[in-house]
Structure formats: structure tokens, C-alpha cells
Amino acid sequence: MRDERRLSVSDVTATVPADWLPFQTTEEVPVFDAVFGQERAVRAIEFALGMNAPGYNLFASGPDGFGKSTIVETFLRRRASSAAPPLDWVFVHNFDDPDRPQAISLAPGQGHTFATDVRHAVEAARREIIAAFDSDSYARMRQDLADRLERERSEILEGLQREAQQLGFALN
């Protein structure tokens, strides 16, 4: 026969006096971001984060819902908080070799400013070009060029007609 002993809720409930706790509410308790039972994973992540060269990646495998992404993100955030901010990189058109854009590094946070400045410059150039083609001076220059070309065409045709007449031909 079995020796049974029934336990009450108070027998299995541990209580801790409030004055033992160094906080008033659990909102004051810092988030615990250690990884239990995953020493190899921690070493692998730390090793991967130590590879400061292009071409290296970190692959985390394990069951779905295990927190792989959260663990890696925690390590990345910790590393990023103590590292200098990275440079901003922008790519611009390379007029010498259009198939190979030119990379430019800028101080952290300046990439957005650069992109905004370029956009404003393009908009201003577009407005100025439209205004230039709508101006009176452009219209005069265009008319002067058209008049000159018409004079040159007339002179060429007159010369051609004279030569044709000398050879006994007529141009119509």
C-alpha cells in the first residue's frame, strides 16, 4: 500500500517578505537577457560577432519558437550599444563607367541629409531648366539660330541651282 500525504496550498507556496526585495514593482526589475543551457550557442554568437571582415555570416538553427532571433538580436544590440556608429554609405552615378556606381562614405547620419540635398538640387535644376527654356532670351536665341539656318539653306540651294543651270538642269 502507498503512503499518501496530501499537501495544502500553503504547504507548497513560498512567500518572500517584501522588505527582502530591492524593488517596489516588477516594472523596476531589469530584463534578464542571459541564455541558459546554450553555452555553445553563446560562444558561436560571440565568435561570429568578432569576425570583422566581409563574407562571414551567422546561421542559427533550432526548433521554431525557441528564441533564436531574440537571442542573436540581444547580442547584436549589446554590441551595437558599445560600438561607434557605422559610416553611412551612398551610391552615386559614375559618369566614367555607368555600370559601376561610385560608393561614397559619409559621417554617421549624413546619408539622409545627402539624399535630401541631392533631391533638392535635382528639383532646383529642373525648375531652372524649364525657366531657361521659357525665357525671352532663349526664344530670341532659338529664332536667331532658325533664321541663320534658313539663310544658309537658301544660300546652299541657290548655289546648287546655279550649278545645275550651268550643266543644263533645272531644280524644282
Question: What is the CA-CA span between the terminal residues?
Answer: 131 Å
Strand content: 5-15%
The pLDDT mean sits at 91
Q: Give the strand order, joined by hyphens, for the main sheet.
A: 1-2
What is the rounded Rg?
40 Å
Helix content: 40-55%
Order of helices and strands: HHHEEHH
Brief overview, please?
With 172 residues, the protein is mainly alpha-helical.
Descriptive account of the structure:
The protein is mostly helical and 172 residues long. The chain has a domain at 1-83. It has 5 helices and 2 strands; from the N terminus they run αααββαα. It has helices at residues 9-12, 39-49, 68-82, 110-133, 136-166, and strands at 88-92, 102-106. Strands 1-2 form a two-stranded antiparallel ribbon. The termini are far apart. The model has no long low-confidence stretch (mean pLDDT 91).
